[in-house]
Design brief:
Helix 15 crosses helix 16 and helix 24 packs across helix 25. The strands form 5 sheets. Strands 16-11-10-7-18-21-20-19 form an 8-stranded mixed beta sheet, with helices on both faces. A 5-stranded antiparallel beta sheet has the order 8-9-12-13-17. A 3-stranded parallel beta sheet has the order 1-3-2. It starts with a helix and ends with a helix. The protein is elongated and about 105 Å long. The protein is built from 29 helices and 21 strands. The structure holds zinc ion (ZN).
Length: about 675
Amino acid sequence: MGRAGVSSWAGYPFWLDLAAKMHTTFSREERDYDKDLSSQLLKEDKYSELFEKMRLANQPRYLTFLSGQFRPQHISGVYKRFIRTLCKLPNVCIVTTNVDELLEHSLPEHVTVQRSDIERLPQLLHQRIPFICKLHGSASSVESMVFSTRDYESIQRNDVYLDAVRTIFSNATVLFLGYGLRDEYVFQSLQTCSTGRPLFGTGPHFIVTSEERTDLPSIVRRIQYEAEAADHRDALQILEIIADFTPSQTAQTAHEHEEEEEEEAETTSCPQSLYYIADLIFPGTWTTSQTVRLDPIAEGRPCQAIIGEGYVNGEIELYNYSALHDIVVGLLCFDIVCVSIDHLARVHDLLGSEAFWIFVESGSLRLVIPPPTTSVMFPDDQSPIGDLGMFTHVSNNRSSIEFSPISIPERIRKQILPIKGKEYEAERLFQLLESSVFDVSEADLWESTVRKTHGALINPSIRHMLGVSSGTPMNTIPRWLSFPILRLAKVISTGIICKHIQASSTRMIYGSEKLASAAFSTAEGKEWTDDVASYVLTGQFNSDVGSIILKEPSLLLEILRFRESSEGESFRREILQRLAADDGSQIVTAINSGLSQALPVSVLQRARNQFSGLFVHRDTSSVLTPVVWGDLRNSDTRIARWRKRSRTLLDEESRRQKLGPYDECPCGSGEKLKFCCQAALS
Ligand SMILES: [Zn+2]
């Protein structure tokens, strides 16, 4: 059910503007028009009485004026987006109070029901035939339009009409979009329906609104959105979410909830603390992204996939970061440190073979087999928009054209080669490593990453952070935002992995820790909010542990001894308890004092940099929400750099397509480039 809100997407006037414009003309040109009284009515938003005054003054002029305002017009991009979304909804019936005729022209398959043949409604509903019902008439048949007091009186006396409206409310679920439920007779019908069928009940109905509404009948539930654009096109996103939410997904979500409950039950019996290092960047050359051409599924150009987080120089600084430092902090403070199987060779080299295998044998270093990598898939290499897709770790077997996934043993043995003559011993260690992996590579974890990434992208604060325009349609990834969105997907996937392996902490770098604080609350489908239930602290921390150990590798064995001592154990218990008790303020001190027990004070006193920030999710109902470690001092500037780079990419894309600022934005929003993605990234 839609009114002015929806029509304004097509460029039709709002009630207030229409009434004011007509009032001006009538005041100027009609002698019989009661100017003062009408001005008063306009001020009080009494539109139907105001229209009645105009009608009384000059009926032919009044009708000509109105129908002139609702002549067919050029369809805007936003309206096209609205129609595209409507088309995705199976068997949707539309009831509108709009008098313009764009809807019926845009949806020719729908039966159009005029006010004069409204008695057809119950039958159409019963037969599930999609229709558009014009409750307040059509512009091309002026006499049918409902604007003035006498029009309202006539429909309220019409029992056939009122019955039809009530039939809708008792037999269907109605989503009110762009309609404030201000028509008295509609409101009354809803109320009659909520009390009239106590046995079977009706509804529920939903209203999409940006306002706080306390006056709604009990069978109407509110879906609130944040209105950023004057024409409330933000409400469209809600329709898009509904359109994308197919019944099979409902079943899946319900199933997932069951699983989550089971998981929570298990954690309470698991006392070990687990630290997952999601990002590890090593000194030397590295690539964090790849563009892959894939064979076309059908005939045509090959499709394209972008994988990885695509960090470039300028987005990251390595001066206060060291992978070894992260691993060592993890080994000191947690029972188990987990790294991705993709980082195996580097971690092995960094710790040195001896220490590496000691940690593996003691069970304190374990591998995670992450779910398939999320990628952005484009229909071809020119296309400006794509969607999230999956990229599996594969080996290209030359003897066959088929790609096949590499097995875990193969992935391990490809990265570490045994020393000659020690193959037998090496095999025992490989098997040990294999037997302790956390395998979370199943596809359903990947699916929930994609679902939750799409979900997080609804969050206005995440959109702002990444520079996604509020107009960009749901489930559309503009090419210039591929990397920021893949970084978001990485953060969300890390959250899912942590939950699955029951890690109490994780480490993220380069701005993604900032994203995590926003994403972890929203990805779980909780309220949209900027004030994530988290707090931040920074403290003194010796950030040189990594480099110290590089110089004095024997210190690693000191750490191992500390871990095995009773002090080391109680230290880790203390950290875990503090994390669980949501008492982060003492964490950094605890780590520092712990470190001074493990390492000589003289070593610790070198290079004292502020290093560590800590988010602790305050939601105590979920013990599983991991703590995110990261360097928070520069998170805002880091994310600003992401936007700057996206802007450069957007400008390149616009140049390639020869788009001016007033052309339609390539993201598919239907808005002008200047006010859409350019604005979001400026
Ligand atoms: Zn755009």
